[in-house]
Amino acid sequence: MRTPEIVDGLQISNWSRSVLEEMHAGGVIAVNATCAVWETAAETLRAVAQWTELVNQNSDLIFLAESPTDIQRARTQNRIAIFLGFQNTSPFEDDYRLVETFHRLGVRIAQLTYNNQNLIGGGCFEPHDSGLTRYGRIIVSEMNRVGMLIDLSHVGEKTSLDAIEASTRPVAITHSNPLWFYDTPRNKSHKVVKALIDKGGVLGACLYPTVSGGSSVTLERFTGMIASLVDQYGPDHIAVGSDCTRGWDDDFVGWLRNGRWNPTLPEDAPQWPAWPHWFQSPTDFPQLAEGLANAGLDDATIEGVLAKNWERLFAEVMTV
Amino acid sequence: MRTPEIVDGLQISNWSRSVLEEMHAGGVIAVNATCAVWETAAETLRAVAQWTELVNQNSDLIFLAESPTDIQRARTQNRIAIFLGFQNTSPFEDDYRLVETFHRLGVRIAQLTYNNQNLIGGGCFEPHDSGLTRYGRIIVSEMNRVGMLIDLSHVGEKTSLDAIEASTRPVAITHSNPLWFYDTPRNKSHKVVKALIDKGGVLGACLYPTVSGGSSVTLERFTGMIASLVDQYGPDHIAVGSDCTRGWDDDFVGWLRNGRWNPTLPEDAPQWPAWPHWFQSPTDFPQLAEGLANAGLDDATIEGVLAKNWERLFAEVMTV
Predict the structure, then answer these.
(1) What is the ipTM of this complex?
(2) What is the DSSP letter of A320?
(3) Do B46 and A95 count as a contact with CB atoms less than 8 A apart?
């Protein structure tokens, strides 16, 4: 089985040498690497500083991407291009100027909200979604200007539709599945996916158990979903965002769920969900590629889903 | 009188369109622009963000410099290259990784201490100077690695000598005068200046009244000092750092003096000192150039003092 080339729409691992080696072994050549979820501007500055250290200490394996052409560079150099990403706009706080400032630090992708309402818009778990706010429209416009990809994965339906309409560039859902595949507020309606794709965007199918149906989901069912999406929306707009969370202990899943806005109670201590046996880590990407072939996708479509659809979208959005 | 080309070793003005126009009218093609004095990392992130906005809104006059070759670019484009600088290492807090991180944001010069003892070393107004600390040695090494110029203007004597020795690259005193010219802890002994210059560094003669002798200092006395320094140390190591503070009200001089470490008492409210009549703002650089000619310096030496000595040092230190 040949190792496929992977551009991964999102990972939020606790990166270390061994986690980077897993990615490399699985064929990952570029990844949207989360460096903020609930963090403030100051905390995110430290998180970016930690990335510079990790990059310096593992420069044989990774480099900090600045341009979409860095994906081709990663391919040539047999390294991984790290596209820093936010899963929330909390690092921008109330200051639109921090979009350009974090862009200068290498941040190339930002999700507008993380589950909850924030200054920019409504999150996918809120009972009422404000839609894109006044400040949110400025942030979308500023992200368009500097070439930062807008991600709607954890964003509410109304804010998602508003952002797709407000953005002058295509946007992404880096790591979600369609609602028909698994019913959770984290997954997406046909209305949102169609609006996204009509605008040139890309949906990354997500392996995280709580959006893909738990550890019992079969490879056939997951790759069948991708094949259906390709049938429905065409081969150029479907990709993968694994949402891998390697190297963390259970405290981190509590942080993801509750941040500092909700107490994590001992009797309700969050735990990581179990992943399906056929995708335990990025080393299993070759099995996913084989599954896509067994689901009837041709080689060109598989290449698109696993790498080139993100590559094309990044080129379109990040080139200014 | 021809407008000379000026590379200014330091300004800490309250930049606005009109302050930028003054610089441009006076012939400034590059400046070390202070964006932090007592600020934390988070506050400095916002200050850098404010610079991105100022640059975007005045791109006909200024641009953010990233490389020493940007001085030549400024000359060609008739704009000003802004080299962001710190007058303190407070933005690095306790995290050596923030050197590279702020370098990515455009910061190219940092003074190790501002008057007081800090984590890195002793300031020039401290009764006892710790010398360069354990953490200070890491910071010097990191600044050397990324190509950030070390500034010793407000640094204590012992820490200055330690830093000159520890640095693998030449360092600067961007805005101070020799002690013999005016006796204040902010000015420099022959021992420090000689050690700096032996290592290839540059001293920027400073027009700020409290280090140059107040508003009554004559142009002849000031340019005579520069001529003496050129005689003593050669024409390649003396430059100018005006220390202009345009556009601020008196509250800011209280901030400079007291930060948040010392209360500014109403009965001792600091005020800006009066400047000499022949140098009220950067528009007066042509008068300074004429004064240097009258002091007997030849054209090549004047070009060196006003621009090319900084240009050469920046090229040597910031090229990595």
Answers:
(1) 0.82
(2) -
(3) yes
Q: Are A39 and A89 in contact (CB under 8 A)?
A: no
User: What tokens does B316 get?
Assistant: 């040597």
Chain-chain contact of B49 with A98 (C-beta, under 8 angstroms): yes
Residue B41 to chain A, least CA–CA distance (Å): 7
| Tokens (6 digits) for B222 | 């000031």
pLDDT digits (tens, 9 = 90+) for A224-252: 999 999 999 999 999 999 999 999 999 99
Nearest CA in chain B to A54: B97
- Judge contact between A139 and A99, C-beta under 8 A: yes
Which residues on B lie below 8 Å from A40 (Cβ)?
Answer: 42
Task: Read off the pTM.
Answer: 0.90
SS3 letters across B28-39: EEEEEEEEECCC
**Which segments of chain B have a pLDDT < 50?**
none
Which 3 state secondary structure label does DSSP give A62? strand
Count the Cβ atoms, other than its own, within 10 Å of residue A69: 15
**CA-to-CA distance for B214 and B219, rounded, in angstroms?**
12
Domain boundaries, chain A: 6-318
pLDDT of residue B1: 58
Backbone angles phi, psi at A81, to 5 degrees: -85, 120
CATH class of the domain comprising B6-318: alpha beta
